[in-house]
Amino acid sequence: MLFKGLIIGLCFFCSHIAAQESVTLQLKWTHQFQFAGYYMAKQKGFYNEAGLDVTIKQANPMKPDTFSPVASGEAQFGVGHSGILQQRINGQPFVAMAALLQFSPYCWMVKDTSDIFHPRDFVNKRITAVSKNDGTELLIMLKRSGVDVNKLKLYDGENPGQAWIENKLDAMQVYVTTEPYYMTQQGIAHRLVCPQRYGMDVYSDILFTSENMLKKNPQTVEKFYQASLKGWRYAMMNMDEAIAVTQQYYASGKSFYQLAFEAEVLKSYITPSTTSLGHMSIAKWRLIADLYGIQQNEFDEVKSHFIYKYQEPEKVQLSWMLMAAILVSIISIPLYLRLIFSKN
């Protein structure tokens, strides 16, 4: 009876140790192929194998803020844009883990009949108000081309997409796979003016966490990091499956064709031939700092803790299997002694 009770206790102990750790990933937008790697990490069991129970939370499209949830601890991980560096400079202890898009997916969209071909052509043009308020690489691109963005006319009405169709504004900020797709479906010819073509080579869709999370749970962060990259590698090597999973479980409102279009466009952003998946470098972050007007001494102060680097904790971490083995050994000793003495 005693032995049975010990076995039951041992099973409960082991199941408790092996219980998955719950973490939340805050996306920067609503569900779409843009986040397929995380979906595949969850659906293929990569997170589960790492001992993680991951909740993937889409953003509120009216207020797509990923920084606040991670800063407050509401989410342990987030997907953000290159502005995370400015956030770090401003005192938010964010740690950039991986850049899933090696280039910015944001562009200006203009009509095919427009006289805007290059950033310098934006002088006296009408643009969407959100673009100016964001202060992203799109505006920096214009500034570097000599355009006084303060003199640009802003459209602040509702439904900028329809306003653009009706020629109420000249250029609209778009995500390279979203608005261009809808315009193509409607037969509206257009072209894109993108930062990447003009030396604005910035990272995007940056997986990040907080310094507090990294200090308290370094192994959890590392497991999430490795499982996420595994999910992305799987998604890139199994595009059709990744598209199907995205549609079935996350973005049911989008057609397979629409998600396939997104996947095909983003593939060159995620896995360009020149670099590895999720790669980040100090050199490129330094260029990004320069583009955003961040002083080099400011960048130098934060760079050592800004880019993620896993360090094995000094404290010996026993696996649950090892701990269970130790417990079994402890339980077995008195039972063994009892057996020996009973024979005597």
UniProtKB/TrEMBL annotation:
The keyword Metal-binding is assigned to this record: yes
Domain of life: Bacteria
Keyword match Hydrolase: no
Keywords: Iron, Membrane, Metal-binding, Pyridoxal phosphate, Thiamine biosynthesis, Transferase, Transmembrane, Transmembrane helix
Pfam families membership: NMT1
Reactions performed catalytically: N(6)-(pyridoxal phosphate)-L-lysyl-[4-amino-5-hydroxymethyl-2-methylpyrimidine phosphate synthase] + L-histidyl-[4-amino-5-hydroxymethyl-2-methylpyrimidine phosphate synthase] + 2 Fe(3+) + 4 H2O = L-lysyl-[4-amino-5-hydroxymethyl-2-methylpyrimidine phosphate synthase] + (2S)-2-amino-5-hydroxy-4-oxopentanoyl-[4-amino-5-hydroxymethyl-2-methylpyrimidine phosphate synthase] + 4-amino-2-methyl-5-(phosphooxymethyl)pyrimidine + 3-oxopropanoate + 2 Fe(2+) + 2 H(+)
Residues annotated as domain SsuA/THI5-like: 32-242
Pathway listed: Cofactor biosynthesis; thiamine diphosphate biosynthesis
Transmembrane segments: 318-341
Coiled coil: none
Subunit note: Homodimer.
Function: Responsible for the formation of the pyrimidine heterocycle in the thiamine biosynthesis pathway. Catalyzes the formation of hydroxymethylpyrimidine phosphate (HMP-P) from histidine and pyridoxal phosphate (PLP). The protein uses PLP and the active site histidine to form HMP-P, generating an inactive enzyme. The enzyme can only undergo a single turnover, which suggests it is a suicide enzyme.
Family membership noted in the UniProt record: Belongs to the NMT1/THI5 family.
Record protein name field: Thiamine pyrimidine synthase
Species this protein is from: Pseudoalteromonas issachenkonii
